[in-house]
Amino acid sequence: MIKAQRGTKDILGPDVIKFRQIEDVARKVFQNANYKELRTPIFEDTKLFARGIGDSTDIVNKEMYTFFAPNNEDSSITLRPENTAGVVRAYIEHGMSRMSPPQKMWYMGPMFRYERPQAGRQRQFHQVGVEMFGISSPTADAEVIFLAETFLKELGLQNITVEINSLGCPDCRKKYKENIKNVLGKYLDKLCDDCHVRYEKNPLRMLDCKSEECQKIFALEDVQKVILEDFICEECHEHFEKLKEYLDGLNVKYSVNKLLVRGLDYYNRTVFEIKSENLGSQNAVCGGGRYDGLVEMLGGDYTPAIGWAMGVERLMAIMPDISDNLIDYFVVSNNQTEAIKLTQKLRENNKSADFDFSSRKWVKQLEKASKIAKYAVILGDEEIENHFLTVKNLSTGEQKKTSFEEIIKE
């Protein structure tokens, strides 16, 4: 038997209902905030991700699905491991920088990373996210964080916490990186191989390491003193203070986490995560931040930008169960011609309906109806001859005679 590939998962049954609910709520919440939906291709030029995400990241070094197109070994393509780089590419390619800012977009779709499958983390997974281009003010930061919290609450999630930090601009971050290298240099032989690479390429990302041994080093007093220092310049500090003021005004409860750096190289200034108490140690459901230099890095004009992404499978794992997955009507009849006609008429009038294709005994049809429908529409010889319908409420057992027109009205 051929099975689904390791790290992939069929979405079916109740999960399909949750998946659709996430998409429906996203469309409602984001469109209300004037975000336009964008759908990018699932594969892009490999250089887009190598340049945009950063060659010091685990994604680029270990996790990308990269291959050569048939009959073209001069360039490679990669299944998208995340979508911000693709959205930025679309922003540049379609001349959106010439449009009045802000340009606000949202997306939902599959992503691909070669990593060890675990609960809520697959090799093919789905993300929903938003991106805003053209606004440098912390009002943009506050809106996207508030939008993420609103979206999660609309999905019925309550036990969530917001963590924020500022990575500063490239100028003020330069000294901070040097200080981190200085303090961690003497512990380098005790750090993991990945941190050795990060030490040379992007020492700030060492703080994002999940190794327990590395975390013990970071917890040492002399290291903590450097990590927790207020390194950002006056302008970045003012930006961060304004963000906190706006979040207070929106009643967003947050905490400042100095260790929060995010895992991608393009972030600057504001970074944030939203966590759920129901996910255990790997509890982040949303991550994002500001990436003011990415558009220019990928060939466009300098454009301030900010966004976030959420893992759909992680959301599904902590969403409340959805029990109401019933169709409106199930037609119970041994007259197949009339049953199929009535079923189609109900569907044409925006009622979900089905019937028994095998014309089984009524008790079997009613048994099936009780499992999949709210009401049974009984269509026997008497009903057909006298032009009425018998409708049974399958939750209360109440039964009444009525007309097709009355069913549609109700």
How does this structure look, described?
This protein is an alpha+beta fold. It has 3 domains: 14-169 and 232-318, 2-Layer Sandwich (BirA Bifunctional Protein, domain 2), CATH 3.30.930.10; 171-229, no CATH class; 327-409, Rossmann fold. The chain is 40% helix and 23% strand. A hairpin with a 5-residue loop joins β15 and β16 (399-402). α6 (170-185) packs antiparallel against α9 (221-227). It is elongated. The mean pLDDT is 89.
Number of domains: 3
Regions with little confidence, pLDDT below 50 for 5+ residues: none
CATH classification, class level of the largest domain: Alpha Beta
Broad structural category: alpha+beta
Determine the fraction of residues in helical runs and give it as a percent range: 25-40%
User: CATH homologous superfamily of the largest domain?
Assistant: Bira Bifunctional Protein, Domain 2
Summarize model confidence as the mean pLDDT: 89
Q: Helix count, per DSSP?
A: 16
> Per the principal axes of the C-alpha atoms, what is the gross shape?
elongated
